[in-house]
Amino acid sequence: MPQNLDAVAVRAWCRLALDALGRAREEIDSINVYPVADGDTGTNLYLTVESASQAVDAAFTGHEPALPSLAETVRAMAHGALIGARGNSGTILSQLLRGMAQVIGGEGQSGSEADHVEGRVLERALRQAAESAYQAVAHPVEGTVLTVATAAADAATGTEGDCGAVARAAYEGACAALDATPGQLAVLGRAGVVDAGGRGLVAVLGALTGALSGETVVSKSAAAHPAHPKGSVHAHARVEAVECEDAPGDEGSPAFEVIYLLEADDAAVTRLRARLDRLGDSLVVVGGDGLWNVHVHVDDAGAAVEAGVEAGRPHRIRITHFGADDAHTTVQPPRERTQRAIVAVVPGEGLAGLYSEAGATTVPARVGEPPASGELVDAIRRAHAREVVLLPNDAELRHTAAAAAEQARTEGVRVALIPTRSAVQGIAALAVHEPDRRFDEDVVAMTSAAGATRYGELAVAERQSWTMAGICQAGDVLGLIDGDVAVIGSEVARTAVSVLDRMLSAGGEMVTLVLGESVPDTVAEHLEKHVREAYLAVDTVVYRGGRQAALLLIGVE
Length: 557
Hints:
Layout: E1 5-6, H1 7-30, H2 41-63, H3 70-84, H4 87-104, E2 116-117, H5 119-136, H6 145-156, H7 163-180, H8 186-191, H9 196-213, E3 226-228, E4 231-232, E5 256-263, H10 266-279, E6 280-288, E7 291-298, H11 301-311, E8 313-321, E9 329-330, E10 338-346, H12 349-357, E11 360-364, H13 373-383, E12 385-391, H14 398-410, E13 414-417, H15 423-431, H16 439-451, E14 454-460, E15 465-467, E16 470-472, E17 477-481, E18 484-489, H17 492-504, E19 510-516, H18 521-534, E20 539-546, E21 552-556
Parallel strand pairs: 10-11, 10-12, 12-13, 19-20
Antiparallel strand pairs: 1-2, 3-4, 5-7, 5-8, 6-7, 8-9, 14-17, 14-21, 15-16, 17-18, 19-21
Helix pairs in contact: 1-2, 1-3, 1-9, 1-14, 2-3, 2-4, 3-4, 4-5, 5-6, 5-7, 6-7, 6-9, 7-9, 10-11, 13-14, 15-16, 17-18
């Protein structure tokens, strides 16, 4: 069956790209030496794709129960990337996606409402992406993401086959070009790394290949591919040890990064480009149709913003200082803060109240709508503390939470991320939290308590499916332990007892039960009685999760 690109595949692409960048974020940050060694390329790419993915999800939600057209979907993706673009790399990636959308969306062409496109259209889209990205950069440099994008387009051109074959060819071409970047850009060669932005693009193209083929494509790490004449490229080489003319703080390097969205016409943007090019470097202006994303490195941040005011209406202005001690610290007026705070993602109003009573700043986890990194960053800001312990309480939020923590650190907040996978692990961590302890000691104690808490959950199967416990049918009650289905039952109480027995077989001193809104109190009473009679030394505590909570959460400490 031909693998063609449609709206569903674009949505899958965004989600897979976000996951791939989440997994590669730290690696990409660690090899970021160009144009400024500020160690945030992976984070910026993640945040940019996160915004694109959210825009695509919103397009789908707005058309339910129908599907958005392919044109609407790719335009939403490009618009989301544009308004959420972060840093030099994210800004260029947003233009790459915009270039693809211009072709796939069929702007000004017939067939713009087609439900899918074939391989030849994807070929043209990749070419338009590379060319538009080059045009957006004031002074293109080879050995960067631009080179990788062009190589992907070159490799895809003339491919015989469907979109899956074209995407695979583009991905392979990008991988080869990425490995060659240390020989094209001296700063990369001296550091022994590939281009960070190019590495991110390889992850995005790998995700496109996976979305079209249904296969898992693991982006090739530069660590596994010899690419430097002196030896293999080390993907995790620390940039702090690199001495190069582009390092922040060196004489002659711009002091500030300025980014803003700008509403302006084409003529005004042309004048703006010329003015900003005289003010600084790393100038990238992307967008069109009256909305632009402007990125530049300058010594006079005020002049860069003033130029935007003269060109049109700038907003979402972000000014970052490349400091000597912290290469990417957001400029903001000093504010008096509390010393330490807890920020936690919690499912259900009942748990939100419980966490709040314990002094935590909470972020709601709505069913089917996981919080974005921006929501977590906003919560960290609301906490108004010098030190923050972040509890994601969901294994699926690990990349989102890591990106939020990284962003908060650029704003001067010391953030420790404890990888809690369930709200009951967060409760255990909160129970041992002592704000008067040293930060590191407090984090270690909370991490230990969370790690010592096994977690279970009851959910209702939505469809027939294979599980580790066998085949379930729609409507079955599933008992999960540490994220895997362990029990398949027909009744909540009996299934919960089976899950409890399995969890307590390894020992335990405390059972925590969190009941969803639809679960009656009699279930809790039944479970408490079972624990009391079968496990004499084990205590039980029960909480109400309220609306939006899981059917039943179980914690065993």
